[in-house]
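Quiz preparation item.
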């Protein structure tokens, strides 16, 4: 680079930062938030952990710093949600015909003793009821597996250890997943999912085999944390917008590896922060805006469900909810710089935002059921027109320790956040109230 080029670059960078401080996305802030939230010190912001609480405190402090208020009826910027969870108290024990099997990996399960009569998928008479369903074909997965398990009545599912089981274990955060619930509930589940090596799979397929899985556990109190802030509107009759993201991710695996969750969903949290900063710096919008970064989405949408049951304004005053998720990679099936809106056809919100410049399209992966797979769903079930705007959901780093800040497409993410500013500003200023289309509102 020549001296003149360096001079020009410095000039441009300085101009960019000055403008960014007011009404446009600031790449420096985007980088700083992402590096902190998905950096080593927050250890992957595990759901309902102290690391998650630190992330919530950081987000809350940023929102407070932009001049946002506490939400109506709240005295601070944090909403703490008491939870109860099962904690594994020792290694899971597995007996086949009374003999221990040492090569098992517990993928998920609920504490207790499960199992009994074994059946092998594909070799049982139709309609057979068994306690343990052995799935020898590693290609059987997802919906087919769930269906077979439900039909057989099995409490334990056994799959072959291999790439599929390894990937499943890793996608869950590299440790067995045990139930969690709100503190006034009971964190219970039924059965276990286990992976075995080839020799044990052979033993399980002997006629008349029995298998027992026991998972020792205790209960532990914990809490998850939502960061909540409010930008008051000019017109108290105009309703409130709810803008959200989830600040938790999968945390630390059993082997100590960190799942940083830069794309999922530090990127959405950064979008929430930048949109909050820019809107707070402008003229007061017609509608009030609630900014919420939820805890424990990954563990089952606990932050969003609690918020939906304890909203600072009545839910029927919330005109719409937009969740920001995974904005760090472009969607291959869409044109460059376009985002997908989950459940697009379920309401008239997406079309209205598009008409006001939003670069959003219908989600081109309906088979993935993304509409049901993020925090928006908890609000949608409670009647709020609620969607998630996101980039690509099937990135190679999805739910792996490789979801790091350097693998996020930062320029795409900055453009994505910028593209949402004007349409959201319009929605906040307009009298347009979105509605579900016929049959669009989910019921279960
Ligand atoms: Zn996730």
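Solution:
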């Amino acid at each position: 680079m020549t001296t003149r080029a360096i001079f020009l670059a410095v000039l441009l960078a300085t101009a960019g930062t000055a403008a960014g401080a007011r009404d446009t996305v600031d790449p420096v802030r985007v980088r700083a938030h992402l590096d902190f939230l998905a950096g080593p010190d927050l250890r992957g912001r595990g759901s309902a952990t102290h690391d998650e609480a630190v992330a919530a405190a950081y987000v809350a402090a940023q929102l407070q710093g932009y001049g946002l208020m506490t939400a109506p009826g709240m005295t601070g910027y944090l909403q703490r949600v008491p939870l109860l969870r099962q904690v594994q108290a020792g290694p899971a024990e597995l007996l086949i015909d009374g003999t221990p099997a040492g090569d098992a990996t517990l993928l998920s399960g609920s504490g207790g003793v499960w199992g009994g009569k074994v059946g092998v998928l594909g070799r049982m008479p139709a309609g057979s009821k068994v306690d343990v369903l052995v799935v020898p074909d590693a290609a059987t997965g997802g919906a087919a597996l769930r269906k077979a398990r439900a039909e057989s009545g099995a409490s334990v599912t056994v799959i072959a250890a291999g790439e599929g089981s390894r990937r499943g274990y890793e996608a869950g955060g590299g440790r067995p997943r045990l139930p969690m619930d709100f503190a006034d509930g009971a964190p219970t589940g039924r059965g276990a999912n286990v992976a075995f090596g080839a020799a044990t799979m052979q033993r399980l397929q002997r006629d008349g085999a029995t298998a027992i899985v026991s998972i020792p556990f205790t209960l532990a109190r914990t809490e998850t944390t939502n960061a909540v802030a409010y930008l008051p509107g000019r017109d108290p009759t105009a309703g409130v917008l709810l803008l959200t993201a989830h600040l938790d991710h999968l945390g630390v695996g059993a082997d100590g590896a960190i799942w940083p969750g830069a794309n999922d969903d530090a990127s959405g949290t950064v979008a929430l922060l930048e949109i909050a900063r820019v809107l707070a710096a402008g003229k007061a919008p017609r509608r009030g805006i609630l900014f919420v970064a939820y805890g424990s989405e990954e563990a089952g949408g606990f932050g969003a469900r609690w918020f939906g049951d304890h909203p600072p304004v009545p839910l029927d005053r919330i005109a719409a909810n937009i969740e920001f998720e995974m904005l760090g990679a472009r969607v291959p099936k869409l044109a460059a710089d376009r985002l997908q809106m989950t459940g697009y056809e379920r309401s008239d919100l997406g079309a209205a935002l598009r008409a006001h410049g939003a670069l959003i399209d219908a989600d081109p992966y309906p088979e993935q059921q993304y509409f049901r797979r993020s925090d928006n769903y908890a609000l949608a079930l409670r009647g709020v027109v609620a969607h998630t705007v996101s980039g690509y959901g099937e990135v190679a780093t999805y739910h792996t320790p490789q979801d790091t800040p350097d693998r996020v497409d930062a320029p795409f993410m900055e453009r994505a956040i910028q593209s949402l500013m004007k349409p959201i500003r319009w929605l906040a200023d307009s009298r347009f109230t979105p509605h579900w289309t016929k049959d669009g509102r989910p019921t279960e």
